[in-house]
Write a structure and sequence with these properties.
CATH class: Alpha Beta
Strand order of the largest sheet: 1-3-2-6-7-8-9
CATH topology: Rossmann fold
Number of domains: 1
CATH architecture: 3-Layer(aba) Sandwich
Structural class: alpha/beta
């Protein structure tokens, strides 16, 4: 296992009975989605949120600038995919899942969540994870290395609840790219709870309310 990533943690109540590992987008850090937690309507639910900081690495599309990233972005169309970087981040997330298990949290009460790059890694890792997870939350993202999933998919997560949300006017991860991933996953038999919103590459209050309702059902 790789070295455990540093994280920001927030517990909604003492003695949490569920964990959400939430991955930020390119260039952000683990603090990015901390302010969303109070807006999710989870009062009375004891949930531990873990917001890890992605490793620092150069990003090709940004002129090689070093920033927090889950993998390299090589072209704007996001078609030339960084398989090695995706695999490395998968191992980082697996280590975070193992840490939650070590703290007494069953896999069936662990949600993988993420935005943009983070959502891509949440999908990639969650669909391959060998233990049954509580759910996968994938926001403003797409499925990386889709052609490799059929051979690598976990049988135990074939029916895992998956929430995908995307902005209709997203200029970073275009809406058709996300819809393509949705259709691919549905074609493999995954049940996708799909949500679309009149927003760019971001989140909105309507989406946060939908996420909160989805998490309420899971935890």
């Amino acid at each position: 296992m790789p070295k455990l990533l540093e994280s920001v943690e927030l517990e909604t109540e003492a003695n949490p009975h569920a964990s959400v590992i939430w991955l930020h987008g390119l260039g952000a850090d683990g603090n990015d989605f901390v302010p969303v937690v109070p807006e999710l309507g989870l009062q009375g639910k004891a949930v531990r949120f873990v917001f890890p900081h992605a490793p620092m690495q150069p990003v090709t599309i940004n002129g090689g600038m070093v920033m927090r990233a889950w993998y390299d972005i090589i072209d704007a169309a996001i078609r030339r995919e960084d398989a090695a970087g995706v695999a490395a981040s998968q191992q980082h997330v697996e280590a975070l899942i193992a840490r939650e298990q070590g703290r007494g949290m069953p896999e069936s009460r662990i949600v993988l969540a993420g935005f943009s790059q983070g959502g891509a890694i949440a999908l990639h890792t969650g669909l391959r994870h060998e233990g049954r997870l509580a759910g996968i939350l994938a926001l403003s993202c797409y499925l990386p290395l889709a052609d490799r999933l059929p051979a690598a998919a976990s049988a135990l997560n074939r029916d895992v609840p998956i929430f995908m949300g995307h902005g209709k006017s997203d200029p970073i991860v275009p809406f058709p790219r996300a819809a393509e991933s949705r259709d691919f996953l549905q074609g493999m038999g995954y049940a996708i709870e799909w949500h679309e919103y009149p927003m760019p590459h971001s989140v909105c209050m309507e989406e946060i309310a939908d996420i909160g309702a989805w998490l309420q059902r899971l935890v």
